[in-house]
């Protein structure tokens, strides 16, 4: 028996090593492709360009922030789609030499629709592309539709949930697809990279971005955007299960330093989660407060959509916070075949030590705290077991747990609501409400961790309801 155990551990270590090697190879390939694209971009750059892209807002490839790139994945294997609208007021004006008086407004307004699409590859990295379409208004040329500079970017996940921190590197290439006559292009291929660091504290999440961007043709009169250091900060505070508010600051420093050419803005907005796949955002930002300067305000709206892969959706829909199975002498494969071939036998919940064990799922409606009909017979048996031992029980803690999908703040609220729904149902069956304490733990107390468990097994085992008792 010991030999088999050692052999099994050896196989698991070998597989883990192979997985790490494959991960490093994949990241190495991506970095090589990025460097290749960078060299191509440098070769494509025209020698004498004279245009700047005054639409400085960059659409993000995540559903958490409007002006910051999150360091986290939207979910392994997920596709990501974004539709972002923003209006920028008076992005380009001409001032007198002393910068005290406005002489002319070159661009009075830009409305931009950013179309973003991406895919996450096995939770290791993501590949993304953004194409902007703009309506530019100027007093001289009226209104004109045109493309902006397209952006290709990736996100390489370097640190995943280490003491709550996430770290990613985001290389990018920008293609000169925009109309330089309308100030929608830097008139040259650009390249650069950014580091994204974030942490979820539960009551709020915070993010910071810092990077470098090079566009050899980004010059117009006294504006020089050839070398820039984009930087940003942001926080997101969940208010309810679906609502959150965001506060973000975004800006860039040009190199060499020029105090007159460092655009920045402060954003405040709200975020509403339609369901586990889609998020709607909206808000506004304030740029310069100087009456003669440009880009004084911006209005933003966005729709982010990251559908779950079908295999994960099958595990999540109706599964609620979880499943807790009683261990029997039957093999796991036999149990699986039985559950697929016929309804699970009705077994009584069992008080064992400091917990009540159940052998069936407590199911909820998708992304909701509404109990499904199949959950009620399970909870009826739990109520019966509690009532049978009520005299000896001091307290019963109804624990809601989630898996790693979704943010900590979102899962914390959802697991609390579901635990409360279980408490309410048990009370309706005659259990004293004062005896029950519902607590949602979100994804903070996983039962199964990597690398001991594969991803699908972790998702199932960590999505659960537990009943802890005090005798």
What is the strand and helix layout of this fold?
Elements: H1 2-44, E1 79-95, E2 102-121, E3 125-138, E4 142-147, E5 150-162, E6 165-175, E7 190-200, E8 205-215, E9 219-220, E10 223-224, E11 227-238, E12 243-254, E13 264-273, E14 278-286, E15 297-305, H2 310-316, H3 332-341, E16 350-352, E17 355-357, H4 375-388, E18 395-401, H5 408-428, E19 436-440, H6 455-462, E20 464-470
Parallel strand pairs: 18-19
Antiparallel strand pairs: 1-2, 1-15, 2-3, 3-4, 3-5, 5-6, 6-7, 7-8, 8-11, 9-10, 11-12, 12-13, 13-14, 14-15, 16-17, 17-20, 18-20
Helix pairs in contact: 4-5
Task: Give a description of the structure.
The chain has 471 residues and is α+β, with helices and mostly antiparallel strands. It folds into 2 domains: 52-307, monomeric porin ompg (Porin, Beta Barrel), CATH 2.40.160; 312-470, OmpA-like domain (60s Ribosomal Protein L30, Chain: A), CATH 3.30.1330.60. It has helices at 2-44, 310-316, 332-341, 375-388, 408-428, 455-462, and strands at residues 79-95, 102-121, 125-138, 142-147, 150-162, 165-175, 190-200, 205-215, 219-220, 223-224, 227-238, 243-254, 264-273, 278-286, 297-305, 350-352, 355-357, 395-401, 436-440, 464-470. The strands form 3 sheets. Strands 1-2-3-5-6-7-8-11-12-13-14-15 form a 12-stranded antiparallel β-barrel. The longest helix has 43 residues, at 2-44. The model is unreliable at 42-48 and 311-346 (pLDDT under 50).
